[in-house]
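are you around this afternoon, could really use another pair of eyes. what follows is a protein written twice so to speak, once as letters and once as C-alpha cells for the fold. i want to understand how the C-alpha cells follow from the sequence so walk me through it. anything you notice is useful, everything is just below.
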Amino acid sequence: SALLSPSMSKTFFESPEFIARSITQQLEKLPPEIDRIQFLNDIVQQLKQHDSKNSSDENHSIEQKGKVEESYSNHILLSNLRAQTIPLPPKLFASDDYPFNVPDTALNIHFSEDNKENFHTLSHATLEKIIEKLTGPNYTDDEVVEASSWLIHCLRMVSSLHRFLELLILRFHGPSMSSCPDMLHFADESSQIQTKTLLVLKRWIELRPYDFDDKEVCNSLTSFLNDTDPDIASMIQNHLTRSRLKPERLNVNIISDDSSVQIPTRFSKLDVDMMAQQLTLLEFDMMCKIKADELINQAWNKNGKEKFASNVVNSIEMFNKIVKILSVGILSEETMIDRSQAIINVINLGVKFRSLRNYNGILEVVSCLLSTPIDRLKLTWELVKGPVLDSFNELVELMTPKSNSKAYRQELKTV
C-alpha cells in the first residue's frame, strides 16, 4: 500500500507541520517488526518523486520541501544513533522560532518513576523541556519555586546564562504568528505561562543577582524590560535592585569585644563547653548560607570567588582565623605547665566538637595542634598524657585524609 495517500499529496507540501503530524501518526500504527528507518527513507524518496512530477504546479513549495527533507534527514540520523532502542520517534521538528510544545519523548525528558511527573523523579531532560514544564499548567507556584531553585543552582553545568535568559524571554513572549499550532496552544494558556515565567526569573534574581552583571545577560534583560509592560519591567528591576542589596557575606570580627564569640584571655582557663557551643552555632550559621552552585568547579579558587562563592570564602576565612586563635592562645601562656593545660583544653574542645557533630571544628583543632609552632613544643607535649592524648590521637585518625577519608565517612553514616 502507498505510504502517502494521493488525496493528501497536495496538502502535504502546503504544511510541513501537517506532514510531521501525519507521518508520526503512521509511525505509531506500525507493528514493531517494521524498520522505521527504512520507512522514513521511503517517505523522503516519495516526497522527492512527488516534487519532480509536479514541479510545474508546485514551484511555490520548493523552499518548504527543503525544510521537510532536512528535518527528516536529521531524524533519520538520530534514529541511526539511537539504534532503534526507542520504538516511537519524537515530533520531527518544532517551530524554528519556538522550541517548546514538542511532545514528551524519552529523548527530551524522562522521569525515573512511572506516573510521577515531578522534578524529584526527573532523570534527564532538555533545558527547553524543563522550562516548558516549569511554566506549564501542571505545577503550582510553590513547586515552580522549588524546582527553579534546583535548576538555577545547576544552571552553569547545563547551559550558559545568556541562553537560559533568552529561552525564558522566548517562553514569555510566545511563538510568532507564523507558527499557527504553537500560537493557538500558547493563546489558551498565555497568562499562566507568562506568570510562571516571571516567577522563574524572579527566583533566579533572588538566588543569583550577580549573574545579571554579565554583559550579554544584562543587555538581554534590559531589552526585555524595555519591550514589556512597564509595570512588569518596574517589578523586575526593583526585585533585582533589592536582591543586590542583600548582604552576601557574613562580616564577623571574632576578635573584637562585641563579637558573638568571646575569645578567652587565658586558654589554660578555657571554658571548653561554652566556647564549643558558641563556635558551633556560628559555624552552623555560616554553613547554612553556602549555596550548592558555590561548590561547583572549585568556584572558591577562581577569579571572582568573592562574588560567585562568597559563603565558601567566608567559611575558609573563619576556619583559618579559628586555627590561628587556638595557636596563639596556646603560645601566649607563659609557663610550660600552663601551655600543656592549654593544649589539653584545646583537645577537649575537639572532643566536645565531636559530641556536637561539628566536624569542621574538629579539623580546626587538629590543624592547630599539628601545626609547626605547636608541634615543636616537645617538652610541653610530654606533659600531655593518658586519656587526653588518646582522645587527640582518635581525632587525628578520624580526620586523616587516608583512604579517601574513610574513617570520617564511616562516622558520618552514624550521624
About this structure: The chain has 20 helices and two strands. Strands lie at 109-111, 122-125.
